[in-house]
Specification:
Bound molecules: adenosine monophosphate
CATH architecture of the largest domain: 2-Layer Sandwich
Structural class: alpha+beta
Helix content: 25-40%
CATH superfamily of the largest domain: ATPase, nucleotide binding domain
CATH topology of the largest domain: Nucleotidyltransferase, domain 5
Strand content: 15-25%
Number of helices: 15
Number of domains: 4
Mean pLDDT: 85
Length: 615
């Protein structure tokens, strides 16, 4: 089947523009880019060497926000004005999160409604979108500072289980932060992409992405095929992560040391627990002495403490496999994401569970999602492959039909992936080729829309007009690539043509096209009516012409003259571009010629009867 690949991206994309990838995390966020020179994805690093920005917003007495490390430091000293884990509230109503609100030290407004939650800080109210936008604004400012160039476009990742409202909330947060969010990408998909999975067209793989972060655990099973990444199942625990390991260590110390004044020591102990946990990734023993007490932990002790928590994550893995109706043998690769996968025991247990000798864990597990987002951004920028990606069709897609009319196959705002097909036929007897021109836009006439490509289907065997059945199909895959194919069904003729990809429209161009279609709707209808009337008139003229050439002898001289006269009048009407006149004159020609058809039938019958005996 003839195929053309057309790129229909949403944004104005130039080769040199940097589009950043953002991992907007529950605990930490970070930005990555693909470097123009090395073509490698890297996380952006401040002079202090830090890549992670705590996803925490603090408001001072005046309501001025600060984001990141300085805000995170206020979590203990000023908890009511320090907002963390806002990602857990994205796109949710109070009813959705009612059972979790005791987990937050800040005030989540209980309006007992289905509308989206608000957070109260002092006298002010903020939506999770506002708060996320503050984090994104900070990330944007950092990127601009490090890159020394304006950053206006981004790809942002979200968990695979995020629903449409949560995805839209994330998009809106980006917009509020002054970012054009070109794409929302699933975190596990981004992580796989960071390891180069899904970049090759002929690759087929089933991947488990094990993501154990600070506060949440997610397991996603992905199937990659033909460059399309499908999420087969997700499972997880929204309250299982590194924090739970820290808490379990604290509990162990409290029991071991018999602490008297629990409350004062707890915050300090938690920080020490995290240090212990991290250090035990490299050494076998941790010890910290203060004037009051000595904290110690061996790797073996940590593993005993961590084991039941890790087991909980493996139960989620089993559930996800069941949901996807897969067995462990079906999983080709396991990708590790999140800081807590640095724990040696986590790696060992995951290897055991999936029966693997090796895991994909050599990239920094805190950065891997952002790195994948950067790779996706690079693809969108047109730097990486010829393909450009999008997630809904921004403008209608269709082909040109008779008289230059736009016949829409996939309307604007259709979800992708999407498929549509329609049958067309020939206009002329013996027509051996058909030109299929693909357009994008909302106007009724293709001349007002944007030409994307032309597919030429040739070699159609000679048939009377109207008999060939040409099936034109549009397929937009999950990555937003449009493939157009054409096949003549009676003969099986198909065409193969490749058209080099074109870049997408800028937002301004797209907006202009949409506005254009609205303001021209009335004229478009008139234009469409004129085209339809003219097409019908032309077809009528062609048919009568053919009849006169073949069967002129059946007509009397006077009839011939009347017909010719009416044909000339109709041709003049066509020139006038007056729709009503064209319709009237077409009808007159129809009236004049209708009896000829009967006569032709009679003649054909007489001919057929010749020489035959009637019994
Ligand atoms: P993330 O949400 O992906 O940034 O994960 C952060 C979590 O990873 C926190 O709970 C950290 O304590 C944990 N983490 C970071 N480094 C290590 C390490 N070396 N060993 C164990 N856990 C770690």
């Amino acid at each position: 089947m003839g195929k053309i690949a057309i790129n229909i991206a949403t944004g104005s994309i130039q080769q040199s523009e940097t589009i950043v990838g953002i991992d907007l995390g529950t605990t930490n966020s970070l930005i990555a880019i693909v470097r123009h020179d090395t073509k490698k994805a890297i996380a952006l690093r401040e002079i202090d060497g830090l890549t992670l920005v705590p996803s925490v917003v603090h408001f001072d007495h005046f309501g001025n926000p600060s984001v990141g490390v300085s805000a995170a430091e206020k979590m203990i000293s000023d908890p009511q004005n320090t907002i963390y884990s806002v990602k857990r509230l994205m796109g949710k109503s109070y009813k959705d999160v009612a059972s979790e609100t005791n987990q937050f030290s800040y005030k989540v407004i209980d309006d007992n409604s289905d509308s989206l939650v608000k957070i109260q800080v002092g006298e002010r109210f903020y939506s999770p979108i506002d708060l996320s936008s503050l984090i994104l604004k900070e990330l944007k400012a950092r990127a601009e500072h490090i890159l020394k160039t304006p950053v206006n476009k981004a790809v942002i990742t979200v968990p695979a289980y995020f629903n449409d409202t949560q995805r839209q909330a994330t998009r809106d947060a980006g917009k509020l932060a002054g970012l054009d969010v070109l794409r929302i990408v699933n975190e596990p998909t981004a992580a796989s992409l960071a390891y180069g999975m899904g970049l090759k067209a002929d690759e087929e793989k089933t991947i488990a992405v094990y993501d154990l972060g600070g506060g949440t655990f997610d397991l996603s099973i992905l199937h990659i095929h033909n460059g399309i990444c499908e999420v087969l199942a997700t499972n997880g625990d929204t309250y299982l992560g590194g924090d739970d390991f820290d808490q379990a260590i604290v509990k162990h110390w409290i029991q071991e040391l018999n602490f008297p004044s629990l409350n004062n020591a707890q915050a300090k102990l938690r920080l020490a627990a995290e240090r212990a946990k991290k250090q035990l990734s490299e050494s076998d023993f941790f010890e910290e002495k203060t004037s009051e007490y000595t904290l110690s932990l061996s790797r073996a002790q940590l593993e005993t403490i961590a084991s039941p928590l890790i087991q909980r994550s493996l139960d989620c893995c089993r559930n996800a496999l069941n949901d996807a109706q897969l067995s462990i043998n079906n999983i080709d690769e396991v990708v590790m994401v999140g800081g807590s996968t640095r724990l040696y025991l986590v790696k060992e247990k995951v290897k055991q569970f999936f029966g693997k000798d090796r895991l994909y864990d050599n990239l920094n597990p805190d950065e891997v999602v952002a790195l994948g987002a950067a790779i996706q951004a690079d693809i969108l920028a047109g730097n990486n492959t010829e393909m450009l990606l999008l997630d809904v069709t921004p403008l209608s897609l269709g082909i040109e039909t008779m008289g230059g009319l736009m016949d829409v196959l996939i309307p604007r705002n259709s979800k992708i992936p999407n498929k549509a097909g329609r049958q067309y036929t020939t206009q002329i007897d013996g027509q051996s080729s058909m030109r299929i021109s693909v357009f994008q836009g909302e106007r009724d006439l293709v001349k007002d829309n944007r030409a994307l490509a032309t597919l030429n289907l040739s070699g159609i065997p000679g048939m009377p007009a109207g008999l060939p059945k040409v099936e034109v199909s549009f397929l937009i895959d999950a990555d937003g690539i449009l493939k157009v194919s054409a096949k003549e069904l009676r003969s099986g003729v198909e065409q193969s043509i490749e058209i080099s990809p074109k870049y997408g429209l800028t937002d301004e161009q797209m907006e202009a096209m949409l506005l254009d279609s609205l303001s021209n709707a009335k004229e478009d209808m008139q234009a469409r009516a004129l085209v339809e009337a003219s097409t019908e008139a032309q077809q009528m003229l062609d048919t009568v012409n053919r009849f006169l050439q073949k069967n002129g002898s059946l007509l009397q001289a006077e009839e011939n003259q009347t017909t010719q006269n009416q044909m000339n009048i109709l041709k003049e009407a066509l020139e006038s571009k007056d729709k009503n006149l064209i319709q009237t004159e077409t009808e007159k020609l129809n009236e004049i010629t209708r009896p000829y058809a009967e006569r032709l039938m009679d003649a054909a019958l007489t001919e057929a009867m010749k020489g035959k005996k009637i019994l």
